[in-house]
């Protein structure tokens, strides 16, 4: 009888131990599920913020693209000349032609040529800057730097991406990408 009681007691202890182990594993899975839901919410929020920034930049771009059209319309309405000058005719023809697509290799080679030309110009500019007095060196350098160089220069001088975006009147995402690619 005592052996049966001890056996039942041991079986109860083993079942209680198994139940505790199962409960701990179940709680781990529930915690994991909660963390995954939090990560999903964070990712959704980050993507929606990114999309909103892109939408704002696209709206800004569209508004900037529309501004020159308004200026051109007012300029042509003020002139009210029936005949077009020689300079205006090629521009109108270019506007009517569909866009031509360029192969990737050709675009890449053109980009490389442009970069090498810019690099050569930078070397010439540096030689000119060295010959000028030191008081105007920073002003001259900023004026002669390309947009990308100015962004990297400001970033290396400790400015935040938001400050650079405001100074350069560009979107934060564009500045972030430039910094990631060049810094």
Report on the structure:
- The chain is mainly α.
- It is 83% helix and 0% strand.
- It has seven helices and no strands.
- The protein has helices at 2-79, 88-96, 104-131, 137-144, 147-156, 161-168, 172-182.
- The longest helix has 78 residues, at 2-79.
- The protein is elongated.
- It starts with a helix and ends with a helix.
Fold blueprint:
Elements: H1 2-79, H2 88-96, H3 104-131, H4 137-144, H5 147-156, H6 161-168, H7 172-182
Strand content: under 5%
**How would you characterize the largest beta sheet?**
none
Helix share, percent: over 70%
N→C terminal distance: 81 Å
How many individual helices?
7
Radius of gyration: 33 Å
Structural class estimated from helices and strands: mainly alpha
The counted number of beta strands is 0
Which outline best applies? elongated
* Unreliably modeled segments: 80-94, 132-137
- What is the chain-wise order of helices and strands? HHHHHHH
| Average pLDDT score | 78
What is this entry, summarized?
By secondary structure, the protein is mainly α.
Defining traits:
183 residues; mainly alpha
